[in-house]
Amino acid sequence: MGLDIYLYKYDNKELSEKLESDYEKFSSATWGKRKYEDIPEIEKDAIRSTISAYAIANGLGDYGEDEKYKHQIEIDSTIDKDHYFKIGYFRSSYNEGGINRVLENLGVPGLYEIFCPNDEYVFSPDWATALKKCEQSIKKLQKKGAYRAFHSSANIFGQNLIQSEKEAIDTVIGELAKNDNPFGEGGYSNNKGAFYLHKPIEVIAIIPGETTILSRQPCTYFVVKSENDWVLTALKIVKETIEYVLSQKDPETYYLHWSG
User: Fold this and answer.
1) Could you tell me the residue ranges of all domains in the chain?
2) What pLDDT was estimated at residue 189?
3) Which of 1, 9, 18, 167 is 20 to 30 A from 144, alpha carbon to alpha carbon?
């Protein structure tokens, strides 16, 4: 589980889920069991119109989502209105810069530990407990050093491993000559390695080790200096979201939707 986390308020969760479930059944039955590519375009248009009419008649959105009894909450934070996190929306990506990955590597409880989804994709957490856990995570992060770590190993899809320092320098010169970094000022990787050409990183440790991703293989871990401001603000916005819910008269009607 991971990626995007949304906050919703339900006026009638049971009815909302029934409306969406009935839409899915109607849509599936209307399309039938034929392969999509075997249906003539003119018939596809007719099917879409039929399904759209059903959605409108039942007060549903374009994709069958209930908009009458279920309300998405997404409000700019008062802490930082331009932050990617919002009151009601958290980004929990798996990459090296994702909040859960960063917090786990620093030994700080992340969103899973704060909300305890227990493999549920739609759930109403114990908001009061979540607030206490979030406050603890904020305090722990404030005491931590600002470090990140990543590893480098041979590309599993094939890579010509360099065998000299000169080859390493020539590889970097070749990447610089391209001048087409697709990720702006950030780093990128390809079958030659990982490159941070436009925004160098400060490496403070190079440690040989192993990675168990897909298969056990030798790698080198790099520990770099970073900053925790963005992640700390994200946690504070998570706390702000919890406080928003707890300030409502019916916090038990607020649910997190945790995308997989």
Assistant:
1) 69-146+228-258, 147-225
2) 78
3) 1
Q: How far apart, in Å, do the first and last CA atoms of the chain sit? A: 4
**What amino acid is encoded at 63 in this protein?**
Y
Q: Could you please report the per-residue DSSP string of 117-181?
A: -TT-SEE---HHHHHHHHHHHHHHHHTS--EEEEEE---TT------SHHHHHHHHHHHHHH---
CA-angle at 205, arms to 199 and 211, nearest 5°: 95
- Which residue type does 142 have? Q
Question: How many angstroms separate the CA atoms of 192 and 154, rounded?
Answer: 9
pTM over 0.70: yes
DSSP of 59-89: TB-TTS-B-SSEEEE-B--SS-TTSS-BBTE
- What are the pLDDT digits (tens) for 162-213? 888 898 899 888 888 886 655 555 678 787 888 888 778 889 899 999 887 7
Q: Could you tell me the two tokens for 232?
A: 């700390």
Query: SS3 of 194, please?
Result: strand
